[in-house]
Specification:
This is Secreted protein. With 171 residues, the chain is of the alpha+beta class. The protein has helices at 5-13, 18-29, 33-36, 39-44, 52-89, and strands spanning 101-104, 108-109, 117-119, 125-128, 139-140, 143-148, 154-158, 164-169. The chain folds into two domains: 5-89; 101-169.
Length: 171
């Protein structure tokens, strides 16, 4: 099934502003095909052969499809916005997700030490808050896994190390 051009337009603009989509869809749904098309387009599509009742039925169906496509685009935009907020704020708040954050540390990892900051490849910065200590380790850009614990506590574990340190996100 091919989506109408308007549905594609609505889906594309959904990322930028879903209130715009609702307003735009409401404007487009107003009127009928005879008002939306030129006389030449209307005749070329063979719509001039329809009875007035058939044309009303077609217009109603088309307006329903446009409204449905707009609603789907709005819901997708809302969900994408919600997901963006969750991803941006992981570590500052729980947001109900128990999934770990998997990333790569920037630079060299030289072990755990209280107060040390760890910058991830995704731009997040985490600071160690407990006394966990591991020394004599040097790894260049290792993979890490930060998992949530109880009461908004997070733990950082570096690939191939059994020790994990309690951390809090600072940026």
């Amino acid at each position: 099934m091919k989506l109408p051009r308007l549905a594609v337009l609505l889906a594309a603009t959904a990322l930028s502003s879903y209130p715009f989509i609702e307003a735009h869809a409401q404007r487009v749904v107003q009127g009928d095909l005879q008002q939306q098309m030129s006389a030449a387009e209307f005749n070329a599509a063979g719509l001039n052969k329809l009875s007035p009742e058939e044309l009303v039925t077609l217009n109603n169906w088309l307006q329903g499809k446009v409204a449905q496509a707009a609603n789907i685009a709005v819901e997708q935009a809302r969900e994408e916005g919600r997901q963006e907020v969750i991803v941006k704020n992981r570590g500052f708040s729980d947001f109900g997700s128990k999934d770990p954050i998997e990333a790569t540390l920037e630079g060299e990892f030289r072990g755990f030490s209280k107060g040390r900051q760890y910058t991830l490849g995704n731009g997040q910065i985490w600071e160690q808050t407990d006394d966990t200590s591991v020394s004599g380790v040097r790894k260049q850009a290792p993979s890490v896994r930060i998992t949530p614990g109880l009461m908004n506590v997070w733990y950082l574990q570096v690939d191939e190390l059994n020790t994990r340190a309690k951390v809090r996100r600072t940026k």
